[in-house]
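Q: A small favour: would you put together sequence and structure tokens for a protein?
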Amino acid sequence: MDPNKHVEDYLTYYVGMRQEPRYAVLLNGAWGTGKTFFVQNLMSRLARPNGTVYVSLYGLKSTEEIDQAVLRAVYPIVGTKIAQLGGHLVRAALKFGGVDTDVGLTDVLPTDVDKVFIFDDLERAQLEPNQTLGYINEFVEQMGRKVLIIANEAEITAENYRFIREKVIGKTLLVKPALNLALTSFVGEVSDAELRDLVLANSSLIEAIFIQSGTNNLRILQQTLWDFERAGASLTAEMRECEEGVRALVGLFFALSFEVKSGRLAADVLSKRSAIVGPSGWIRSAPEDHPIRRAIERYPEVNLGDQILSDEVLENILVNGSIDVEQIRSTISRSTYYVTSSEEPAWRTVWYGWERSEAEFEGALKTFEQQVQERAITEPGEIVHMFGLRLWLSEIGELSAALAEVTAEGKTYVDDLYKARNLEPLPAGADDDLRYGGWGGLQIRSLELQEMKELWAYFREKRAAAAEEELPSLAQKLLAELVKDPDLFERRISPEGGDDSTLARVPVMTAMPVNELVAAMLQLHPAKQWRVFAGLRARYEHGAIDRRFPEERAWMKQFAAHLRSAVLDQRPLTRDRLTRQLNALVELIGSDPGADPFAIT
């Protein structure tokens, strides 16, 4: 049933009146209910072509500004081609050109009395409501025009508003969200025909979720559809053909979008969704009033734990407005709707154990444990998942080993990779390497256990040790690059080196032999020697030496001392040039608090 049928019936009567009504009609409704959309859609059918004048009062501060807004709506050329309006120009129009006149607005308004004037956003005008309604009343009383006013009266708090409205407004109609009409219109604006058909096929689900959201805000629906259109462009033809997968995607996306856009679900909660609700929709741990728990109760038809989109992907789209096509495709393709257990890594099938058959789970678990014994899992994210899964399997009894034994086995696993030099070193800036929450689009199991925290810390410690052991070989490679390509050397150690700046956050200089570096520098052309200093300046400027490389300060002191000694054997010109360049670098770095400053000679 159309919730606005009575509104449409009355406006049809009002617009069709042969006599001057001498009153305005107010269309009242909350923000986002689609009042403007409803009125414009209806008037396009009721009024003859060009039979309406639409004026937004949003932000207008004076009656002169309303004059100008009306004139722009009646004559779009006002302000650019004023002369074309003819002999009778209104005062507001002439003020665009700095001319003053006594000609009034009525002198140039259209003479056809059937034209309907629509004044929108009454509550958002910066005039007092009595001033705005007083202005509109001239159209009603003096000009005899048909006037519609669109407003959210709940936002109008002025004490004199009720008094003045009774003099101007003869009928007030409440506009409710016309969901079916709005959704059809919104979907019609989707440019991708196949995606449009996909949304239409799931329109009943979208309508149900919207009603369950209780927002009654069509703008949120429209904004969600815009977001879905951007994300949906990432779907491959195969993904679009899977009705079950598409339905799950639509349900999860629209429900969480409504929660985020209505302010009920904060970004920090969305990013931890998988830690709160399992992939089958069951609550792991959350108080009764938790936003995720409330959302689950609000949308009984949607599995809010579904991993068809990961927490990271959802946060990127719904919070950051970021669309990464490959990331979206990757998380969808790994979901239960698009992958079979024979195609996915064993650890993933084990992770999805609740959604796999016992035979699939048993086969994957056997393969998974074999990979653990063979030390075949070497990707850091997969290793952390392995820790969490084995602790979880121990807790539920799928592994006979106790938690303490699983923890010891995990440390031995790391030790074995470290000894075999198969442990990936901890990269510089490792806070972004692995999040203590998820990897590969899936929440890591057992994060709440002390044993998991112990394994995580041990893993990082060993990776850091592997990174430190790698420094000498990196330093020798960097030194070789200096000899062959000093420009590349500069880019390697500088944060401004683009894709080549692989060592910009690695404390590689601590392993660089200062005598070999200085010897190599002295063999370079003066212009290339300058590149070495340029790289070091970029590396250490703005206090970066203490923020990122405090261990390199001692190395820098040795480098300065060795270079000063080496230039003593150079000709005066060379000695002067290199000493000045070194002094500039030392001055930029400054002295280490509590230590002797670098000697400047």
Remarks:
- Strands lie at 24-28, 52-56, 116-120, 146-151, 169-174, 438-439, 442-443.
- The first helix runs from residue 5 to 15.
- The mean pLDDT is 86.
- The chain has four domains: 5-176, 181-333, 346-466, 485-589.
